[in-house]
Design goal:
alpha/beta, six-stranded mixed sheet, 337 residues, Protein-Tyrosine Phosphatase, Chain A, globular, 15 strands, 2 domains, 32% helix, single chain
């Protein structure tokens, strides 16, 4: 969002993004000419402590949920890395922190760095009067310094409203005006596999999302339920990493139980070797809704056995390879009916 705001506002900038943008078809937004005083936007990650190689002038911390415990060992060490990251912000810089974790980090903001909180109905920068209209989220931006009414976010999801708050705040800190911010928000279409509508018809919805942590899945499903409150939701989930499945099986079960039914694929191992006794059924046992254990070979066939109204593919492994076959199967089944 920040990279898009700068690009649409004709500010000299280059952005390195952790996914393929819908607006630009790339994970890089380049400044076409060499400009000395340009903004460089970097989407950083706590995995392998890689974000501790950066020394930003402006930083955003969106979340600090326990994750990558295979790297950190425990949540305390992971949280320490975020405190270490704060110490790397340059003197005179700014940091914008999601209000859900602001209290945990505010006392670790270095002297000479200005910290701001943001959130929905909370924080220094706050989204208020959040409403949904035609799959679009509309909200007011309020703060002691600036206020903007009825902003239209082209990307659905309450978590994306939170992200928009930080993007607006950063844009404001870099000198963008309300007209530029408003226009950029409305034209932002997101990143592939981030709340991506594959099918968006009145009688059939198919959304693909990269969510692979319980908190992300909860945010995704909560938003989908608000968008389609009267329709059953089918979630197809591929767990990512044996260690994450073992550490958060209960939390995955709670989050995925927001759906009406769940299809659980085998665990995507990524960089890990199997852990004895750790399978997708660890999550299945924690679900409070009907679930089916499936594989990449038979999930399309299993889904085709009945009609679905809202379908989500969720996960960070190779589940993206199933999106097109599932799309075709859903469309064929809908035509048959």
């Amino acid at each position: 969002m920040i990279g898009h705001m700068l690009k649409q506002s004709n500010r000299a900038s280059t952005s390195f993004i952790g996914g393929i943008t819908q607006n630009y078809g790339s994970n890089i937004i380049l400044e076409p000419e060499a400009v000395q005083d340009q903004v460089v936007v970097v989407e950083a990650d706590e995995f392998d402590r890689s974000f501790l190689t950066l020394n930003p002038d402006v930083a955003v911390i969106t979340a600090m949920d326990a994750d990558h415990l295979d790297i950190y060992g425990d949540v305390d060490h992971m949280h320490q890395s975020f405190r270490d990251f704060l110490s790397r912000i340059k003197p005179g810089g700014k940091v914008f922190i999601n209000n859900r974790v602001y209290q945990q980090l505010k006392d670790h903001i270095p002297s000479g760095v200005t910290g701001y909180s943001y959130g929905i109905e909370s924080g220094f920068f706050s989204a208020t009067q959040v409403a949904i209209k035609d799959n679009t989220f509309i909200f007011d931006f309020t703060s002691p310094d600036i206020n903007m009414d009825q902003l239209n976010l082209g990307m659905p999801g309450f978590h994306n409203v939170e992200n928009a708050m930080s993007a607006i705040a950063v844009g404001w800190s870099l000198g963008l005006d309300e007209k530029e911010i408003r226009k950029a928000l409305a034209s932002y279409t997101g990143v592939k596999r981030r709340f991506e509508f594959i099918i968006n018809e009145s009688n059939l919805i198919f959304i693909d999302d990269y969510a692979h942590h319980p908190v992300e899945i909860k945010a995704l499903l909560y938003s989908v339920k608000k968008l389609f409150p009267d329709q059953p939701i089918t979630a197809v989930f591929q767990p990512h990493l044996f260690s994450r499945t073992k550490d958060f099986a209960v939390e995955f079960g709670s989050s995925l139980s927001l759906a009406s039914e769940v299809y659980l694929l085998d665990i995507y191992p990524a960089r890990e070797k199997p852990i004895p006794g750790v399978t997708s059924n660890l999550i299945g046992k924690e679900l409070t809704v009907p679930y089916h254990l499936v594989t990449t070979d038979n999930v399309v066939e299993e889904l085709s056995k009945k009609r679905h109204q809202v379908v989500l593919t969720i996960g960070a492994g190779d589940i993206d390879q199933l999106v097109q076959p599932i799309k075709e199967a859903l469309e064929d089944h809908d035509k048959d009916k």
